[in-house]
Write a structure and sequence with these properties.
122 residues, alpha/beta, five-stranded parallel β-sheet, 5 helices
């Protein structure tokens, strides 16, 4: 049975590339472009993992992560934040807010590095 991933990304091109890479690695991916209904969608899809940018539209990733970890039906879901820099303060704050992993992207973005990092959480 493949692992389910809920991908929250407002960049359509990056979302498509990442969804394709995840599918090629055996993951079943559902994508959202904003956080407006993320907690409800998480209950519906019951993903193993959520991958999202901290600065997603509607409600920021920190608040969403806290909501997910405080909701009994979603508190078990692993949360990975993806960010374009390796700011130690943001990384620490992510952990405080309940994220399971903080992935600092590099230019160019490497889907393979993210997928390797995800395997540590499985």
């Amino acid at each position: 049975m493949s692992k389910k991933i809920l991908l929250v990304c407002d960049d359509n091109e990056k979302s498509e590339v990442l969804s394709s890479a995840l599918a090629n690695s055996g993951y079943d991916t559902t994508s959202l472009s904003d956080s407006s209904d993320l907690v409800n969608k998480s209950v519906e899809v019951n993903p193993d993992m959520i991958i999202m940018d901290i600065n997603i539209p509607i409600k920021d990733g920190y608040k969403i992560c806290r909501d997910l970890k405080e909701t009994p039906d979603t508190q078990h879901i692993k949360v990975i934040f993806v960010k374009n820099d390796n700011n130690p303060l943001e990384k620490a704050w992510s952990v405080v807010k309940g994220a399971d992993f903080y992935f600092a992207t590099k230019n160019p973005f490497s889907e393979n590095n993210l997928i390797q990092s995800m395997s540590v959480l499985n």
